[in-house]
Amino acid sequence: MAKMGKRTFIWLILIVLFAAALRLIFFSGIGASDDLLYTSYAYEMSKNEFSFPANHHGTRLGLLYPVSIFYRLFGVNEFSSNAFVFLTSIAGIVLIFYFGKIFFNEKVGLSAAFLLSFFPLDLVFATKLLSDAPSSFFLSLCVFLFLVGEKSKISFRKNLSFFMSGIAIGIAYLIRETALLIVLFFGFYAIFYKKIKLNYFLIFFGFMIIFALESIIFQVNTGDFLFRYHSITSSWQEVIKYSGTYRGTFPLSLFYFPYIIFTNAYFGLFYPFIIIAIFYSISKKEKKSYPFILWFLSLFLYLSFGTTNFLEYRPFAAIPRVLTIVTLPALILLSHFLSEKNLIISKILKPLTMGLLLLTSIGFIYLEKSTSIDNLKSIYPSIKQLDKPIYTDPRSKLVLEYLSGYSKEINILAFNIQENDKNNIGRLNNIKDSYILINHKMLNVILEAHPFINFTFDEKICNQPKKWIIIKNLGKEPENTILYYAP
């Protein structure tokens, strides 16, 4: 492996610092979705109180353990909650540089690192406690180690690279199950290059070590060696029932991902140029780019048209962050195209394209910055001073508990918003001498995110009694958050 030049090293450091600065400026933080569950589970782990719940969130030990360590060291806060994901995002900048440097040249590596530094999807989810981005980093690392092994002429280094590639797959799997889709890349690679080597088995062996360690943990704590598999398969039907896939009706639903890469703000204007880069590499028969084309296409096509269940067709949920798994190969291909020696590309198209992508990406990210818990963050200092029970919707309750660092010093109770909710504490008309927080913004988000759930909001959420006293009102209708006192 050739050494990095001093000038290249300085540029890489500057790009990393630029990436870190952007991620801090556009810090996302904890939202009101899956990340809330991860914080509560990681907190329980940090206190040795984790009960291994039978759902896919509670079995992602590769995400929960690192966050729990940060909680032990720094307590529950926005820094400790997102530090692990942030670090994997920054590591991804360095990794994509080495992809470009080793398999193309340093110019491609620096260009790829710069593109990734402001790619909207990576930038936004670099500071959100979700499993997609960190799992995608380790999956990319596994491909890197595999391709390095393929390139190596020394038997020991080759075998070690294959083995560590399997370890990286295992870590990616610990964070998110969809990491196993990388098998598609290896399959397409073996078919395209018409070779299956005996030492490829070391990849499987490395993965199985991680899988065995995870299974032993589950066996010790739950009595079920395959607890994760059983938990996911048993809970998946409920996930589909209550969340759906948001992809519309068949057959147009099959083209959801090809559609959003050109229209969703999380992808900026990158993908038109990425598609051009892929066709350019194919037309020019750029053999160095073939592994990255196979990597991108095998995963992207399966996410678009494949199924999550082999017993019945269940497409992947239409969530943009699912596509973090193909970000690195896409940007490597784009960087390779923009770094061509063709004068028109290198002197005109490259600076214009990078300038356009940078400016538009920052604009898109700025527009997407607000979250459903902004009002709760603003009103929390007032709430923690209250000495009477506070009633709010279940999701806002979880957010307030997180903001309190799970200290349990605030008496927060949830009112019913869902039909046949067994956890209902009481209808709003029965609440006396207490505070009531009506978070319209959160309720709107819940309705939009879960169109298949039959919600039965209490009419008093929209038509508050005149006797209720407004303590604080944040935001504008219809997404305001109001704190009442019910005498």
Structure keywords:
globular, single chain, 60% helix, mainly alpha, 487 residues, 5 strands, 2 domains, five-stranded mixed β-sheet
How do the strands and helices of this protein lay out in sequence?
Blueprint: H1 6-25, H2 34-46, H3 61-74, H4 78-103, H5 106-118, H6 120-125, H7 132-151, H8 155-175, H9 182-193, H10 201-222, H11 227-243, H12 256-263, H13 270-283, H14 290-305, H15 327-338, H16 343-367, H17 374-383, E1 390-392, H18 394-403, E2 412-414, E3 434-439, H19 440-449, H20 459-462, E4 469-474, E5 481-486
Parallel strand pairs: 1-2, 1-3
Antiparallel strand pairs: 3-5, 4-5
Helix pairs in contact: 1-4, 1-5, 2-3, 3-4, 3-8, 4-5, 4-7, 4-15, 5-15, 7-8, 8-10, 9-14, 13-15, 14-15
Describe the protein in words.
The radius of gyration is 24 Å and the shape is globular. A five-stranded mixed beta sheet has the order 2-1-3-5-4. Mean pLDDT is 88; it is low at 419-426. 60% of the residues lie in helices and 5% in strands. It is mainly alpha-helical. The protein folds into two domains: 6-367, no CATH class; 374-486, no CATH class. The protein has 20 helices and five strands. Helix 3 crosses helix 4 (78-103) and helix 9 packs across helix 14 (290-305).
Total number of distinct structural domains: 2
* Strand arrangement across the biggest beta sheet: 2-1-3-5-4
Binned, the helix content reads 55-70%
Order of helices and strands: HHHHHHHHHHHHHHHHHEHEEHHEE
- Counting DSSP E segments of at least 2 residues, the number of strands comes to 5
Estimate the global geometry from the Cα principal axes. globular
The secondary structure category is mainly alpha
Report the C-alpha radius of gyration, rounded. 24 Å
Number of helical segments? 20
Strand content: under 5%
pLDDT averaged over residues: 88
Biggest pleated-sheet summary: 5 strands, mixed
Q: What separation lies between the terminal Cα atoms? A: 73 Å
- Spans where pLDDT lies below 50 across 5 or more residues: 419-426
